[in-house]
Amino acid sequence: MPARRANPNRVKQHRSYSVDELARCCDVHKNTVRNWQRNGLKPIDTIRPILFHGAAVRDFLTRRNSSRKRPCPPGNLYCFRCRCPRRPALGMVDFVPMRPGSGNLRALCESCEAIMHRRVREADIAKVMPGCAVQFAEGRASLSGQADPSLDCDSERLG
User: Fold this and answer.
1) In 11-116, alpha helices (H)
2) Taking residues 74-93, what's their average pLDDT?
3) Is the separation of the CB atoms in 72 and 117 below 8 Å?
4) 45 within domain boundaries
């Protein structure tokens, strides 16, 4: 199971936290806070109990979480199997409309052949996927567009 990211917004900026308090606030183990300290989280001083200023903790967690992001450049979709942005195989992408004006791009990964998805507005397709052949698929049928029910209904025979 992948590790969760600690939410920096749960930490109050103008408060000092001990290791135990910070662990409870961020919903992590105390050893995780000690690992953060080894990886660059600065305590207020070296006197025990070790205290951390809330603003420093927020800044550390924000920088740590943003370093893990992998934004997709134009022409790429994120492959969850490869865990990085990849180009679609053969430059072919399908657009499946979900709502009026937006939908999902679907393509195969060029290296592992897994299905990749990306949510996009219909107006931004040319900007998001330049140089790719985008095929527009039919959207899902809505309830109002369903055919009439079968005329051979058992409820009419009962009466």
Assistant:
1) 19-26, 30-38, 54-67
2) 87
3) no
4) yes
Q: How far apart are CA 30 and CA 24, in angstroms?
A: 8
Return the pLDDT at 73. 86
In this structure, is residue 153 part of a structural domain? no
Q: Find tokens 């195969």 and name the residue.
A: 108
CA distance 158 to 93: 52
Whether 41 maps to a domain, the answer reads yes
Mean pLDDT of 92-120: 88
Number of domains, the chain = 2
91 φ/ψ sector (left φ>0, alpha ψ -120 to 50, else beta): left
CATH of the domain at 63: 1.10.10.10
Residue 83: give the domain boundaries: 77-139
Do residues 44 and 16 lie in contact, with contact meaning Cβ atoms separated by under 8 Å? yes
Query: To the nearest whole number, what is the mean pLDDT of the chain?
Result: 84
Note whether residue 130 is domain-resident: yes
